Amino acid sequence: MYGIFRYSYVGSSENDKTVIESERHLFDRIVKYTGVFGSVQGVTMLVTLLINKVKSTLLGTAGYGITESLNRNTDLIRNSTNLGISTVAVPEISRFADEPCSRELSDKILLTRSWALLTAVAGMVVCLILAPFLSRWAFDGDSGYTVSFMVLSLAVAATAITGAETAIMRGTGMLRQIALSQLLSGLLSLCISLPLYWWLRYDGIVPVIALTTVGGTAATCYYSCRRFPYKARPFAWSLLRQGTGMIGFGIFYTIAAFIGAWAWSYIARYLTANGGDELTGTYSAGYMLVTYLSNLLLSVTDSEYYPRLSAAGDDRGNAHHLMNNQALAMCMIAAPLVILFMICLPVVVFVVLEYEKFYESTMLAQMAVIGLFFKAVCQPIAYEVLARSDSRIFLFQESMCYIMLIVCVVTGYNVAGTVGIGVSLALVELLYLLLVLIISRVRYGFVMSGKVVRNFLIQSGLVAMAAFSLFVNSFIGLAIGIAACVASLFMSLRFLRTHTTFMPSFLSRFLRRS
Hints:
This protein is an all-alpha fold. It has one domain (21-507). It is built from 16 helices and no strands. Helix 6 packs antiparallel against helix 7 (205-227).
């Protein structure tokens, strides 16, 4: 393992005090767009929390369980038919992003939209045909949800269109438009969800899923089509065959996505079979809480970092430099937020949900969020496989992840109930990080820098300290958690002061005012 964690500098000097100007601007960019997308996700999170407050009051944990089963099994069809275009098209488009008026870029966009429209139609048809089977699979032999899955075929098609338009905006650097489309999608979701849940109760679950998905598609298309007017030729084989390389990787991506969707679907079905909709709802609500923070932290990785890494092409030195810097920045940003989330989550649940009903969800989320810290460091490294379109390695990497997920969650539930599920979700992310590091080292020669390793180990210790404080039911436990949070925040602020240009400027202005 020594070769994986060998010291290699992220910058140009031997100590942390001197960081060259280009490095500081790179970290500025990372932190800036993390803030931009994090702010948008924060607004979206508040909207979703409001929706879930109404949902928890009207439907309880059983409503979450039904929603979870519908979503996971719809994802199974969606991920099996969309060919991963939202991801695999980004490297193809980003290569021509510097030439916005070029014929090559226009051709790539037309190709992306044509394949996406074709997969949208295919996904809708498959969902309609398999609706009776999905109902019996998801709800333990109950075919009463057949019509629900037929309605949700519309959401399957809409998601395929959204993925293509998002890939176009990501590949061409339309970061502001991505943020605005996400914000608009959240507001549309609020306007659609609240009246339907209030009016229809349980019968509103399916219309809400379908209409909010279509609303998100409309918001995304509004911004992407303003710059690149919509054109598609889904049945022109002379055009479609030009994308065989992209679709070849997309097939492997689809297989991996199918395995992932099946794994999550299996977990939801397993929990329903062993504890009913109440247990599935408890798990779903806890995982949902972690997802909020995940979106807050990691949306920038998809929208800003992945296209930038893809543009590095075959330049391994530059790519590994970007990966180390992104991993370091995400490590320092994620740690204090994860610790703060663990400490404050009971208060949030008390305000937003009904704490008595969702107490077990809170414990699950407090454990599972530890995995988000590992994921924040892992994701910038794991994206190298995608950026290089290394299909077989990607399939192996993701398949191993989902095998570990099923084994850990089932074992964790049988050993320690809902808390065990949370611990297992964190353990999966740690194991996945180790797997990605080994694959990246062996396959691409990537070495995690000494600076990243040092800061990662220190912040990991502080996260573990905060997790330990949750099991000390006294003032001492709270003091331990707060101390871990303060120490982590101090490290992160020190990092921002020495590695960015805006933090010293901000502190200078603040001190002058005071």
